[in-house]
Amino acid sequence: MTQPAASQPTPVASRPPPRRTEGVLPWLHRNLFDGWFNTLITLILLTLLVLALPPVYRWGIVNAVFGADNNACRAVAETGACWGVVAEKYRLILFGRYPFEEQWRPLIACALMVAAVAASCWRVFWKAWLAAFWLAVLAVFIVLMKGGWFGLTPVETSRWGGFPLTVLLSTVSLMVAFPLAILVALGRQSRMAGVRTLCVLYVELIRGVPLISVLFMASFMLPLFMPQGSTIDVLVRVLVGMTLFTAAYLAEVVRGGLQALPKGQVEAAQSLGLGYWQTTLLVVLPQALRLVVPATMNTFIGAFKDTSLVTIVSLYDLTGALQLALGDANWRKFFFEGQLFVAAIYFVFCYAMSRYSLWMERHLNTGTRRQ
User: Fold this and answer.
1) Is the entire prediction scored with pTM above 0.90?
2) What are phi and psi of 140, to 5 degrees?
3) The CATH number fitting domain 63-98+155-364, selected from 3.40.50.150, 3.40.50.80, 1.10.3720.10, 3.30.470.30
């Protein structure tokens, strides 16, 4: 009996190569032209940009005056921008009422502080000596700004202003508020009723009033409760008020991360024999803080911009110094250009913080994100 011939396997047709996921065209398709709705929105926005950019370019570049010439600025007031107000008043905007001949000191102090912040954002510098480095930077900042040491002319804190004051208020308040916020968030979840009640009262009281009220109380009401003859510098009072205000909001952000952490993480740590503080420091907080990186950075950005409110207590930060510069009647008409200059400074630093937040998210989520 003959065996049937074995059937020949049918060859599988070749498949097309996978689509590229990297490069300009894939990015455009994924972000701007993914579906008819996104494509429609993209085309509408492109049309608006085409219509808006030429007149803005003519106003801001072609017809603009860049020199500190008041007459030339008034001649083109209807058709071009007057960047001459920035060229004329930039030192007053950046350094406020700090003595003109001593403005090299806040320039160096501010550069050191910004450099320290930038260095702290890189993991290679996350060493034990970083805390000592920050103490040294803060000491140098105070010595340069206040003077009275090493032959430097003394300058009272009421004359500090401009961008160095903005950097000082935001940086120091956030450095102190962050660990305080962690303690308050842990206190709100404590089993001790007294600790939990105090933390709840603190958070709800601070969050229930605007920052202006906190600054007003710290600046004008706090000295009334001090002993007779004792005073606290207004800058210190403002720093305390901003720190307490920021810590209350950060505490709720951290508490959200603590609540999002699965209970099994704590139980697993306890099963290994870890105590409360070991579990908190080694297991709970690293995971909880990773979950709230976007919300934490959002609070940081808000605190950086909230420094503009210190003008109500006669401290002239970047925006307050701009108002001083526009007090000159010759340049008051060109306030819009001055506001754009200050807005650009805020945007650069806020955008940098935002991008760093995105990098931090990607860096910390390498073990959990989907590929």
Assistant:
1) no
2) -65, -40
3) 1.10.3720.10
